[in-house]
Amino acid sequence: MAGKLGKSTETMLVQAGRGQCPNGTVNQPLQRASTILFDKVSDLDQAKKSRFDTGTVFYGRFGTPDVFAFEQAMSEFEGGAATLAVPSGLAACVLPLITFLKPGDHVLVVDTVYEPARTSLDAFISRNGVEVEYYDPRADIAPLIRDNTKLIYLESPGSLTFELQDIPAITAAARARGVLTMCDNTWATALFCKPLELGVDIVVQAATKYIVGHSDAMLGLVTVADSALHRPLREAANWVGYHAAPDNVYLAARGLRTLSARLTQHQNSALALAKWLEQQPGVAKVLHPGLPSHPDHAIWKRDFQGASGLFSVLLDATDRDTAIRFAESLSMFGMGFSWGGYESLVLLGDPAHARTATRWDEPRQLVRLHIGLENVDDLKDDLAAALAASVQK
Ligand SMILES: *Cc1c(COP(=O)(O)O)cnc(C)c1O
């Protein structure tokens, strides 16, 4: 893959945003700040006027040079015009909604959206006179677009159940009607999918996951294709007092340097285990778009350059106790929310209660796995033992 400057993506990830390091340090120094001091009233006035311009150091909440350097690196990685760092992935999901939706507007949201974003839409966005409509990830979008549709919210693959969306078809239909599109690209990162190249206007993601990569910081990112969209996002982030902590940005910038090495191993181990799991007794189905058995595999081959380490498994079992025994028998998979760190994780999923446009009436138990950077054969042995321990004869 060639980067914007004809460089490979791996090289770009090592170099991006490092240009202006003072004193010869390899990494941008961490700068914690609230107050910024000015010598002259005129300097302070000037900074205040341009406080929404990336690069202006005015007050800590508006960002410091280390944060701006990371945002610039992310824009280069995504192939976007500008990036805004925000306090969490969920903050990134919500920011375009509060920025671009007004009372009377209609928003189309994929039914498989990250569940906490769905909660924000139902509990908060819809309270302000915005009509929220969920759509089937595989639906033809054009007939769903109304005159007052302002925004289409995509996430591909879908949370927990891994349906892919036809991103180019959706963005083409949206453009024809002057509708904005945003896409949550946390699963693939720009290493494996570039939604802006597929016609999306706004990419949001939880850098908390693979970019930080070590399960120790929260950060969200909003990257836009057109710089005209950046200013309103930056202003709205200020209205609600968002501030991306420089310590977390530092960890994300450090994570970015090793992203391609880590994600390559997450991908290889996850694909190997997904293929192996398909053959195991006790496993009914593996939901991983990189598998030829996945119903959207052709879309994955067309739009993605790879797959990350997160996928789900349907057990043969329909009772939750078997799924609980499986999860609790694993010794190398921690149980807990989030993913994208170096360690393997397991979580029992229950998609049925988080779907309204589609129905999830699959009776078999869904288990989500995040495949970490442990030795793949160690993980396989652990999974085999847990399957043996949980499956009733
Ligand atoms: C985790 C996640 C988020 C939210 O990120 P946080 O940093 O935990 O707020 C958003 N979207 C997707 C797809 C996620 O997996």
TrEMBL record:
A GO term, aspect molecular function: pyridoxal phosphate binding
Domain of life: Bacteria
GO biological process: L-cysteine catabolic process to pyruvate; transsulfuration
Catalytic reactions of this protein: L,L-cystathionine + H2O = L-homocysteine + pyruvate + NH4(+); an S-substituted L-cysteine + H2O = a thiol + pyruvate + NH4(+)
Cofactor(s) this protein requires: pyridoxal 5'-phosphate
Annotated keywords: Lyase, Pyridoxal phosphate
Modified sites of kind N6-(pyridoxal phosphate)lysine: 209
PANTHER family, per database record: CYSTATHIONINE BETA-LYASE-RELATED (PTHR43500:SF1)
Family classification: Belongs to the trans-sulfuration enzymes family.
Descriptive protein name: Cystathionine beta-lyase
Source species: Paracoccus sulfuroxidans
